[in-house]
Design a protein that fits this description.
Bound molecules: pyridoxal-5'-phosphate
Strand content: 15-25%
Distance between the termini: 49 Å
Shape: flat
Number of helices: 26
Structural class: alpha+beta
Number of strands: 39
Largest sheet: 9 strands, mixed
Low-confidence stretches: none
Mean pLDDT: 94
Helix content: 25-40%
């Protein structure tokens, strides 16, 4: 029997979806709408939906057969709302037929109509969604909310279980469907707490028409390049349309974030901030939002269990149960008070900080004598390498006390490098919500304010003051007086403490939450809002303002630096520390650095730091003075090369080295033409830029080469014209070009090439390539230049120099990057005769090239490579990683090839194993997601579809495995 009253969930009871088969759907389309179609069932909890396709398979629309519990006016309202949104400029699924009344087979009728099929994928599933797509969803919901505020219809007056205004009743009614008692209990407790907050705010929550279900399932995304889903821009399924709290719309969408890989509560912040940009949140809405998310999650859990119970055949409902539980668990994983403060911070409306008046509590400790211990990424207290070790906190404090300080104290709210964790996917809990105090002597502890002693057990005193202020004093040396339950006045003795470490925390606000000692940076603004700086307990001023964050720094950098001097990432972390193969941000997050070939011996190497400091104190000057380091280093460098390469020029960079190599070749041969390889990068100076043909570095490279530059095809055996065994032809073609140049009177001065093709993505040259081309260029009277700036110096594992892999000896070798481990240092090594020819070009002098400090750097780097066996490590770890990646490639066809030699690697990503269509957008998105999971890796190659991996040569097997595991996780769960 059809109800004429508006739907009321509390009257209607169970709501199994109407039983409509695929043949029924085809028949309805034919009989009621005159359409000859095929139908495919689409999942729905309450209705029956079918995608209809025409004769050629083209989508015709979606047949929706509404649940008989809903009246005609409600369905009309849904169609009207879709049209209203479409008229307001949003992509919304409008009805394309009127509503038809269809017999239900048992004497009743069902309402059926066909609505627009919106092209594009949804965001459904549990895969990872990047922050910018969540933000796009937030904007879409904001736009829909803004538009629907002007919509009204009699069919909005209904009572739905999804309307969060009724969440407490719905959950109470359905909780018994959650069979497992512990889960049921969690749902009920969380509901009670959330409802208390929401009920208190209800009167201040604006009402309007809401879609009620703009989730990942109910939005569609336009298609981008290669068919990849773009950001959501369309809205479907208006079945939960109603008149309710406007903020409920956002709460529903936020809950959808929590079902996805990586969808922890903080992942919803970009969505919320983007919504707020379009439709500003009121204070009452900020306060209600997270409790509403909890209520939505609880509603999903109880309703899902109910639906699965009453409609056992509905796979859509039963399949969703675990997702729904995940949403709930995540919604309650961070206390609502913390989330509310975090949301307020994200929309830049933080509540005013509550700073209680507190008297100093450590009798006899004079504030001026207290030493402040800074354990941040910018602190010099933490030694290179020690920062991954909390033990160094103790050592630094002991040093301060040994120097006579009565106490040493840490900083509140400042992320601690010492709490960082290497090889970790989540950011670790580095932000202290209290302070540590190391006391030199036993000290009496007094009450900082009037209050009641909540607890005074061995090792701890907790004092509760007015306005919800709670002071915690904790530590093994804390011996409290027996005061539990007693009221005490400010200044009254509470305990003795010291010598040794004492932890102080001040909680504020009304919540009786215990605040963890360290919290993760993403949640820090939320937790810190529930605490205050305990520094005044020592008579010190509270910490004022936070350190400059990564975003502020980017803005300042962009204001001062040239725009073309770019940076990695959309929102780069602020990196201020490095150690071995790790980098660390000011948040105390450790990243595995897979990109820094320059830091060949690793970051923060103490031998290098010490050697440089020593030399700086002694002397740094230019190479026209007579000092030992320049002779030592030049000899050492030349000794790494075969005869007759025995003469060194020292410069400051790869560009300078290559530029000089070209000039040497021109001077020696008296010619000007140079043969270079396509897709190459050799530097940014006028001459090195001229021979650089990589379009990734310069989009105009191929059309703007000067006439003296002649390119040969990039000898790419994976995707070039000649592949596999046929790759030998590249050498023949290069030889032809050289011979043609000779015939045309343009005999080349030189042929220049990376001996292992780094800039093309780490691709080995075809066997015999350099021998053939070197022979040809020499036969033409030109010279062979090997650009070893990227690949030389041991990284390839099998050889120290790349050219050794091709069994050739060049006439000129250029090197930089690794040889200085980041210090500006480059070199050209050649024969005495070629070096002498430079005189015809005039004068050679480079002010800082070959300076004492640079030479000491060069010597130390060579020492470390030898002493630590880094070339061998590059071979062993490189081969291990290559095998891991090759195995992953068998499961993930996106990996087209793993190019590698030692620790120079390129994982080439393709959309199609046959056409090798470069997966460009995917590569960039994967790099972003890898960063979120703690790994720095970047795209390279002319098509920017190769993950370039050239980590410090000290990379450990554990770190290599972390990389491989993380890449597989990303390939499996999305980017
Ligand atoms: C092969 C090659 N040559 C030369 C250079 C230029 O070196 P630099 O950046 O030190 O000037 C680079 C830099 O990436 C390079 O990869």
């Amino acid at each position: 029997m059809r109800m004429s009253e508006p739907f009321d969930f509390f009257q209607a009871g169970e709501l199994p979806a109407p039983v409509v088969s695929v043949p029924d759907a085809v028949a309805i389309a034919r009989d009621h709408f005159g359409l000859a179609v095929t139908a495919t069932a689409l999942g729905s909890q309450q209705d029956a939906n079918f995608l209809l396709r025409g004769a050629t398979g083209e989508p015709v629309g979606v047949l929706k057969v509404a649940n008989p519990a809903f009246g005609r006016v409600e369905i009309e309202a849904q169609d009207a709302a879709a049209t209203f949104l479409a008229d307001a400029g949003l992509r919304a699924a409008r009805n394309i037929t009127p509503i038809a009344e269809v017999p239900d087979g048992s004497g009743g009728t069902l309402f059926a109509r066909i609505i627009d099929f919106l092209d594009g994928g949804t965001m459904s599933g549990d895969g990872y969604v990047p922050p910018h797509r969540w933000a796009a969803l937030g904007s879409l919901v904001g736009r829909a909310g803004t538009a629907l505020a002007g919509f009204d219809h009699p069919g909005l007056q209904r009572t739905l279980q999804w309307d969060l205004r009724h969440a407490d009743r719905t959950i109470e009614l359905l909780a018994h469907y959650v069979a497992e008692p512990s889960r049921r209990h969690l749902v009920q407790t969380a509901t009670a707490a959330a409802w208390r907050t929401v009920a208190g705010l209800a009167a201040d929550l604006p009402m309007q028409a809401i879609h009620g279900d703009i989730t990942d399932d109910n939005v569609v995304c336009g298609r981008g390049l290669g068919g990849a889903d773009q950001s959501p821009d369309g809205i479907i399924d208006f079945g939960d349309l109603t008149h309710s709290w406007a903020i409920g719309e956002l709460a529903v969408t936020v809950s959808a974030v929590l079902r996805h890989e990586g969808g922890e509560p903080a992942a919803a912040l970009p969505l919320i901030a983007a919504f707020h940009q379009v439709r500003p949140l009121r204070d009452s809405e900020i306060a209600a939002l997270w409790p509403l998310v909890v209520l939505r999650a609880a509603t999903l859990v109880v309703s899902g269990n109910q639906q699965a119970a009453v409609d056992a055949d509905n796979e859509y409902a039963s399949g969703a149960l675990e997702f729904e539980w995940r949403i709930f668990e995540r919604a309650v994983s961070v206390p609502s008070d913390v989330m509310t403060a975090l949301i307020a911070d994200a929309v830049r409306r933080p509540a005013a900080a509550h700073t209680p008046e507190l008297a100093p509590i450590l009798a006899g400790v004079v504030a001026d004598d207290v030493v402040l211990l800074d354990f941040s990424a910018l602190s010099d207290l933490v030694d290179a390498g020690a920062w991954l070790d909390t033990g160094c906190e103790q050592d630094a404090a002991a040093r301060a006390l040994a120097a006579g300080a009565p106490a040493a104290v840490t900083r509140y709210g400042a992320p601690r490098l010492t709490r960082s964790v290497a090889l970790h996917h989540d950011s670790p809990a580095t932000v202290p919500t209290g302070i540590d105090v190391w006391l030199a002597d036993a000290t009496s502890v007094t009450a900082p304010l009037d209050g009641v002693v909540e607890s005074a057990a061995e090792g701890e005193v907790i004092l509760a003051g007015p306005d919800g202020v709670v002071v915690v004093v904790r530590g093994p040396s804390v011996r409290p007086a027996e005061l539990t339950g007693h009221a005490v006045a400010a200044g009254a003795p509470l305990a003795t403490a010291g010598p040794g470490r004492v932890w102080l925390q001040i909680r504020t606000g009304d919540s009786d939450l215990s605040v963890p000692a360290f919290v993760r940076p993403e949640y820090a603004p939320g937790w810190l809002a529930l605490s205050a700086d305990p520094a005044p307990l020592l008579g010190l001023a509270p910490r004022s303002g936070a350190d400059e964050d990564a975003d502020d720094l980017v803005r300042r950098r962009e204001g001062a630096l040239a725009g073309v001097q770019e940076q990695y990432y959309r929102r780069p972390p602020r990196i201020e520390r490095g150690w071995r193969e790790y980098l660390c941000s000011v948040d105390g997050r450790s990243y595995l650095d897979m990109v820094n070939n320059v830091a060949a011996i690793g970051h923060g190497h103490p031998d290098l730091a010490d050697a440089v400091a020593r030399q700086w104190r002694r002397l740094n000057t230019n190479s026209r003075f007579n000092y030992r380091a320049i002779a030592d280093f030049s000899q050492r460098l030349a000794a790494t090369l075969p005869d007759p390469l025995d003469t060194v020029f020292l410069v400051n960079s790869g560009s300078e080295a290559v530029d000089l190599a070209l000039r040497l070749a021109m001077a020696t041969t008296g010619r000007h033409d140079v043969v270079a390889v396509a897709e190459a990068y050799h530097g940014w100076t006028y001459a090195t830029d001229a021979i650089s043909t990589s379009v990734a570095d310069n989009p105009n490279a191929l059309t703007t080469r000067p006439p003296w530059v002649h390119t040969v095809t990039s000898p790419n055996s994976y995707r070039g014209e000649h592949r596999g065994a046929a790759a030998g032809r590249y050498a023949d073609e290069a030889v032809d070009i050289i011979e043609t140049l000779v015939a045309e009177g343009h005999s080349p001065a030189a042929f220049i090439c990376e001996p292992f093709y780094g800039n093309a993505g780490g691709i080995a040259l075809p066997d015999g390539y350099l021998p053939a081309v070197y022979r040809a260029v020499r036969a033409a009277g030109g010279l062979a230049i090997a650009d070893e700036v990227q690949v030389g110096y041991g990284r390839l594992g099998r050889w120290f120099w790349g050219f050794q892999g091709q069994q050739v000896v060049p006439d000129i070798v250029t090197v930089a990057k690794s040889m200085g481990n980041g210090q500006p240092l480059g070199a050209v090594i050649t024969t005495r005769a070629i070096a002498d020819a430079y005189r015809t070009q005039g004068y050679f002098f480079s002010s800082a090239g070959g300076s004492p400090v640079s030479c000491v750097v060069g010597l130390t780097v060579l020492d470390v490579i030898e002493r630590e066996g880094l070339q061998h490590n590059a071979l062993v770890v490189g081969d291990h990683l290559r095998a891991r990646l090759a195995d992953i490639a068998t499961r993930h066809p996106l990996i087209g090839a793993v190019h590698s030699c030692g620790l120079y690697m390129g994982v080439e990503l393709v959309r199609d194993p046959v056409t090798l269509e470069p997966a460009v957008a995917e590569t960039s998105a994967i790099c972003e997601r890898m960063r979120e999971l703690g790994i720095i890796v970047q795209p390279t190659g002319d098509r920017m579809n190769v993950l370039k991996m050239k980590p410090p040569m000290c990379l450990s097997v554990t770190a290599a495995d972390f990389f491989a595991d993380t890449l597989e996780r990303v390939l499996s769960t999305g980017w």
